[in-house]
Sequence to fold (285 residues):
Amino acid sequence: HIDSPLLTQQDDTGRTLFVKADHALPLTACIKARGGVYQVLCIAEDVARAEGLLAADDTLDRLAQDDARHLLAQHRVLVGSTGNLGYSVGVIGRALGLQVEVHMSHDAAEWKKARLRDIGAQVVEHPGDYTRAVAAARAIAAGEVRAHFIDDEGSRLLFLGYAAAAWDLQVQLAAAGVMPTRERPLRVYLPCGVGGAPGGVCFGLKQLWGDAVQCVFVEPVQSPCFLLRLATGDADLTVYDIGLSNDTLADGMAVPHASDLVARWVGGLVDAVATVRDEDLLRAL
Fold:
């Protein structure tokens, strides 16, 4: 089981603030490990079972043996990413012997591309934005029998991997003596790009506590794709259509178009959306 610590701090009014420190999550130090690692393991397990290498009573440790790695090396995983999902997929994929191809947008940080290459993943750079990078990876994978596409915009496995964070948080809050109620709700602020990670966490939290938890999605001022989707209900609108640039220092959230799957599944569960300017992000940092 992989989890991150829950940090606490008192604000100026004496309220307790918590930080779910997924920036310290083992393996890849970001929340994307919850979804990305989970889906790659599911892919590897399916391949091994289909080839008869994984018996019903085998554990996933079997995938680390040489014959399993040789089999998995004949398959490749493709993903479109601004960086963190791609790295999570790359780390676990390469560890299992899979070929990994990460399609990245022009606004992805160079250091994120470099660390992917360092672990043996292939990085394909696109002149367009995140949405175009995802579309390119999807199209390539569709034409190959042994290619497996991880869809940041519409994967149920990614979504469920992120949702598991809610159960981890429940244990930690209970240990801290916190039990959310409608009268004293827990308010959770979730950074939002395409919506997969915050959507999954929101879904999990609402399953546990319903209206005793309030979920607030937080987006850059120039990339509020989920706010746009919730405000208009239009699945086709992008931030460009309303005169915004999708240009932000928060490159992991530089997404012009929200996930349709996440918007349909959890749009009605989101309590609020807030937008933040880059200068405020820098000041907070």
The chain has a mean pLDDT of 93. Residues 183 and 212 are 8 Å apart (CA to CA).
